[in-house]
Amino acid sequence: MPKEIDALQKVGDLPIGFTAKPGSTLEFKTGDWRSVRPKLDREKCIYCGFCYIYCPDGVYQDMGDKEKWYKPDFDYCKGCGVCAHQCPKKCIEMVLEEV
Amino acid sequence: MAKLVGMEVSVAVAEAARLCDTDVVAAYPITPQTHIVEHLSELVANGHLDAEYIPVESEQSAMSSCIGAAAAGARTFTATSSQGLALMNEMVFIAPVLRLPIVLAIANRALSAPINIWNDHSDIMTIRDSGWISLFAENGQEALDMTILSFRIGEDPRVSLPVTMNIDGFTLSHFIEPIDMPEIEAVRKFLPPWKPLVQLDIGAPISIGLLGTPESYTEARKATDNVLVASKPVVVESFEAFKAQFGREYKVVETYKAEGAETLLLTMGSISETAMTAIDEMREAGESVGLVRIRLWRPFPSEELLKVLLPAKNVAVIDRHIMMGTPDGPVAVEVKSLLYDAPNRPNVSNFVLGLGGRDVTRDDFKYITKRAKEFKGSPSARYELVGVWE
Amino acid sequence: MRAAEAQYVKLTPKTFPKGPDSLASGHRACQGCGEVLALRLMMKALGTDFIAVSATGCMEVCTAPFPQSAWRVPWIHVAFENAAAVASGVESALHALRRKKRAPEKRIPVVAFAGDGGTADIGIQALSGALERQHEDFIYVCLDNEAYMNTGIQRSSETPFGANTTTSPSGTKSKGQNTWKKNMAAIAAAHGIPYVATGSPAYHLDLMNKIRRAAAVHGPAYLHVYAPCPTGWRMKPELSVESAKLVVTTRIFPIYEVLDGEYVLNRKIDNPTPIEDYLKIQGRFKHLKPEDIDYIRGRVNQEYERIERLAAAFPVSAGA
What we know:
The complex is a heterotrimer.
Chain A: E1 36-40, H1 50-54, E2 60-62, H2 64-67, E3 70-72, H3 82-86, E4 92-96
Antiparallel strand pairs in A: 1-4, 2-3
Chain B: E1 4-8, H1 9-19, E2 24-26, H2 34-45, E3 52-54, H3 59-71, E4 76-80, H4 82-92, H5 95-98, E5 103-108, H6 122-125, E6 133-136, H7 140-155, E7 163-168, E8 176-180, H8 184-190, E9 207-208, H9 217-230, H10 232-246, E10 253-256, E11 263-267, H11 271-284, E12 289-294, E13 296-298, H12 302-309, E14 314-319, H13 330-339, E15 347-352, H14 362-374, E16 383-385
Parallel strand pairs in B: 2-3, 2-4, 4-5, 5-7, 6-7, 11-12, 11-14, 14-15, 15-16
Antiparallel strand pairs in B: 1-8, 6-13, 10-12
Helix pairs in contact in B: 1-2, 1-7, 3-4, 11-14
Chain C: H1 34-46, E1 51-54, H2 58-63, E2 75-77, H3 83-99, E3 110-115, H4 116-121, H5 124-132, E4 138-144, E5 170-171, E6 174-175, H6 184-189, E7 195-199, H7 204-216, E8 221-226, H8 230-233, H9 240-249, E9 256-259, E10 262-265, H10 275-279, H11 290-312
Parallel strand pairs in C: 1-2, 1-3, 3-4, 4-8, 7-8
Antiparallel strand pairs in C: 5-6, 7-9, 9-10
Helix pairs in contact in C: 1-7, 3-5
């Protein structure tokens, strides 16, 4: 069932003032918009962070100084390809999403 | 006996906002409301009211700033009239759904065109369906008391809705009247600090003003309507608390010599005082006539009105606005709708007068009383634009 | 205090904030949206101690469909044209409440975000009022994607010359948009406010430090931010940041600051990239003829050189 259906709430159950909790769009997984996904070649990655910085959807997570890479969260990645395009080492490839 | 002070009614309304410890005023000048905000800016300038006065560049921004301020947790006040209210219109419909208890004093004035600065009720009727609580004052004392009550009712956690306090432009706003000015301590006791239900707070962030898709829009509007309807007992309770504190008694529907009257005149606002004088004179001449005055326009006081109107033979509803394209004024529409299902309902006729500041005299009420008794035929035929030259 | 003296900690590549974004994922912005990227970066730069106000528009709709919100800071949306007025109200309320000891004793920036339509067209009156009133903790950000994208790509006064939109279509008697982009930064600066800046998400640290400076300045700040829109510009989503870079290197969108009226050009472009490189990646310009492009190049250089001269007039400014 699509997540938007949550908008159906009884009158008496609505929050006062029709408000929402902070950051609650996390309940909505935009990952299924994706037709291509970023595939990272960690050998070539220099841990520059451009993928993290320029991701419009903020899906990259810093894996820290030990692992030295950024990991995309495919629950939210829309497959726009900005990370691949901005990567200075061209170590991100957009590959077809397998159905 | 309280000490009465002679004071312009607009000044009294501003003084009420001071007594209520208003935090933010955002206002734009428009006749005939200006004296209210002029006095408020003076109070702020002299340190008599510790508030931020935002001299906005339009009424649209006035209401927008009020919404922002109230959402941030400030007790918020503004005033407007006519075109100003029309320019605010978009924001007026938003505040109730966000549950922000802004108080808006309206010095009622005719809407353009033609441009006209004088009194009628065409401005307030444009926001009839917006979700605001709407109170009408008849005289200066009521204007002050209703302003204080507007804050108390609006901020009640069972309500948390914005309130308009209506005074007739010029014919009430600019009159100097004897006012019993309450002590500030008594007002502060009557109106404790406001505890917002919805607030922009970095300690507990929430999002206000969301997109309502077809899945939620109906429910959001209905939730607001429910609260508005349920606010009536709080209004009544607040009037009672006001009486206990200050001694002055108010009802959502006021009456004058109405009991047992064959014909009832139904009014809102300051023309009611003229109507009462006319009723006194007609009573002396043996006419069985009385007055019903709506103080609480929204939520509509259906039960209270039914109770007073049903025993009468004729009800003459007086409107101060032409509702173009229909055969009735806005108050008459409500009254007729209310009485439709009632057995043995009275004859209801509708008289529109006092538009754009045209004088309403005792003779007008005598004429209306006579016509209300004469009217026959279908309800739609029982309508008259009083005094129109055509 | 002069704007150039406002104290704030500049972000560097080493101190780039890596914590959770103040704008959560799960928002419904289009793939490759440069506007939400600019918003995300600026929010990241500010952290969580600010209050956000949105005008109606793409960012409002895509971040806050009931019952969800992407905002991790207090946020309010009221209508289209009034973000500046709503923010004025919030800002004034915080001042009153602080003075009356009903709010914590600390400055909280109130940041209004609006699109180009909500800023330069329908919202310009409310914005002008707010800037003129000199609200102390007030920041206004115009996220300029150069048309009414939320309603379906209609032209605004920020649509660039020659661009095809649904209400400035190119045709046998039209080149598309037939007016030059309205200079909102200059209009904002004309209000005598302490801080005005332009920025682009491709220059992320520059942009992020500008909003940090805006928050530190006492008095209103206006940021005009370039916001690529792949959907509305008929551009591949992955080229979003690329276009945000090209728009600067071609001189089309100079990034600069105006500190107390003094101009500072942040990126001097001595050898501009050919403007064709910028125009050709966007379908909205594909109908332009060489002579149209020549005209655009001429006007772009003229505007850029004007900023350059203004910056040269204030060589001692501490802003850079």
